[in-house]
TrEMBL record:
This is Succinate-semialdehyde dehydrogenase/glutarate-semialdehyde dehydrogenase. GO terms for cellular component: cytosol. InterPro entries: Ald_DH/histidinol_DH, Ald_DH_C, Ald_DH_CS_CYS, Ald_DH_CS_GLU, Ald_DH_N, Aldehyde_DH_dom, Aldehyde_DH_Superfamily, Succ_semiAld_DH. Belongs to the aldehyde dehydrogenase family. The lineage of its organism: Bacteria, Pseudomonadati, Pseudomonadota, Betaproteobacteria, Burkholderiales. Pfam families: Aldedh.
Length: 494
């Protein structure tokens, strides 16, 4: 361990890891270099983390490859028991994991506690699913043949995870991979490596064997080199990534020469539609959960709010009242804070650019619209009215606490507007008309549709997008499919 005095009090300070984890060993970078991780609330440096690169990544792949044979040979029941121990340890250390998350990511401590439970739910779910891998016997068209289909682990997997959910996006990828019998090399986001390394410490304690789960932490520059090695390696059979659509496209390109399987959870531009027959109070509550969760830094956050003209003024008024009463901006550790800082200065600049562009094009600031008086990376919860389709906030993910509200009058037209994007991750609408509910849910070109709810994620749900929002599904009974191959066996001469 390279830690000295920790910036927070943990019940178990050994969870505060700054070295990477390869083949069951905690390791520094070959050149002994480190990178700094800061607290987005204060800008203070909270850790110097070992900065690994291409050579260390090759060794991690090699370790994962060597561990693969024995891990896949174990029974699903055996793997399930180990994953279950990991789940129990995550919950037993939930408070420390939440503290580490708020420190490096900035989200309010209540949200971090929620994410630890959410992240653990994937480990529990896939521990259960590990025992339920099945195959098929097909009716053969040839009387003397018998046809079997088996499911087998795909092999060594690379997982590249984002900073906005530093725990749950790891467990949603690693748990199904391990359950399926795959081994993993994980590269967490450079902004939030501490949550990943703490999870690895618990995985080691749970008895996950050396080489089965490896973690490479790296700064932004070396992360590019690490990503290239993972994509180029012929040993790595699959890459699973959550992040932006542009980076997803690069990973697809880099993986083409070795024809890898990819799961991509990419960007979104979620429409949130409120029809005139909706329960407006419920829609306001749903909008707050969907829009301001994690300060708007979530791929499934409502990005564009479309509200029917008949309820537009009422909705905006109620939304503003509620936002004022429930959202308190501040340091994630401070009492009653419900909105933390944005992750970095670039995130603040993007939000400012989107708001300025909207205002320049005629949007009206109902509330917020500027940096918070606390300064730093804090931004005021913002509502914009009089918004038009030509504004940046309607075309690109803002990834911040900005709710642009557009007026509409016609169902078919609002569906057309909602679908008029390359993205297709999450969408939401509020209505009490059962005919409309089916019509609109079927018409929306999205992988996920929330009807009369702003929160759709859990371990049972197939999470994923269509169009340029990604490939594959995570969580759910389908979540292990992406980590397995089908093998067809034909028995002749029967
Ligand atoms: O940015 C994407 C994170 C997904 C959060 C969720 O699972 O709801």
């Amino acid at each position: 361990m390279t830690t000295t005095k920790l910036p927070i009090h943990l019940q178990d300070s050994t969870l505060y890891r700054t070295q990477s984890y390869i083949n069951g060993q905690w390791v520094a970078a070959d050149d002994a270099s480190t990178f700094t991780v800061d607290n987005p609330s204060t800008g203070a440096i909270i850790a110097k983390v070992c900065n690994l690169g291409a050579a260390e990544t090759e060794r991690a792949i090699d370790a994962a490859n060597k561990a693969q044979k024995a891990w896949r040979a174990r029974t699903g029941k055996d793997r399930a028991a180990i994953l279950r121990r990991w789940f129990d340890l995550i919950l037993a250390n939930a408070e420390d994991l939440a503290q580490i998350m708020t420190l490096e990511q900035g989200k309010p401590i209540a949200e971090s506690r929620g994410e630890i439970v959410y992240g653990a739910s994937f480990v529990e779910w896939f521990a259960e699913q590990a025992k339920r891998v099945t195959g098929d016997i097909m009716a053969s068209p040839n009387a003397s043949n018998r046809m079997l289909v088996m499911r087998e682990p795909i092999g060594v997997c690379a997982a590249i995870t984002p900073w906005n959910f530093p725990n749950a996006m790891i467990t949603r990828k690693v748990a199904p991979a391990l359950a399926a019998g795959c081994t993993v090399v994980l590269k967490p986001a450079e902004q939030t490596p501490l949550s990943a390394l703490a999870l690895a410490e618990l995985a080691e304690r749970a008895g996950i064997p050396a080489g089965v789960m490896n973690i490479i932490a790296a700064d932004s520059e070396r992360s590019i080199a690490v990503g290239k090695v993972l994509c180029a390696s012929p040993i790595v059979k699959k890459v699973t990534f959550t992040g932006s659509t542009p980076v997803g496209r690069i990973l697809l390109q880099q993986s083409a020469p070795t024809v890898k399987k990819l799961s991509l959870e990419l960007g979104g531009l979620a429409p949130f539609i409120v029809f005139d027959d909706a329960d407006i109070d419920a829609a306001v509550d749903g909008a707050i959960v969907s829009k301001y969760r994690n300060a708007g830094q979530t791929c499934v956050c409502a990005n564009r709010l479309y509200v029917h003209a008949a309820v537009y003024d009422q909705f905006i008024e109620k939304l503003a009242v509620k936002v004022r009463s429930v959202l308190k901006v501040g340091d994630g550790f401070a009492q009653a804070v419900t909105q933390g800082p944005l992750i970095d200065d670039a995130a603040v600049a993007k939000v400012q650019e989107h708001v300025k562009d909207a205002v320049d094009k005629g949007a009206k600031v109902v509330m917020g619209g500027k940096a918070h008086a606390l300064g730093g990376r804090f931004y005021e919860p913002t509502i914009l009215s009089n918004v038009g389709e030509d504004m940046l906030c309607m075309r690109e993910e803002t990834f911040g606490p900005v709710a642009p509200v557009v007026k509409f009058t016609d169902e078919a037209h609002v569906i057309e507007l909602a679908n008029n994007t390359e993205y297709g991750l999450a969408s939401y609408f509020y209505s009490r008309d059962v005919g409309r509910i089916f019509r609109v849910a079927e018409a929306l070109e999205y992988g996920m549709v929330g009807v009369n709810t702003g929160l759709i994620s859990n371990e049972v749900a197939p999470f994923g997008g269509v169009k340029q929002s990604g490939l594959g599904r995570e969580g759910s009974i389908y979540g292990m499919d992406d980590f397995m191959e089908l093998k067809y066996v034909c028995l002749g001469g029967i």
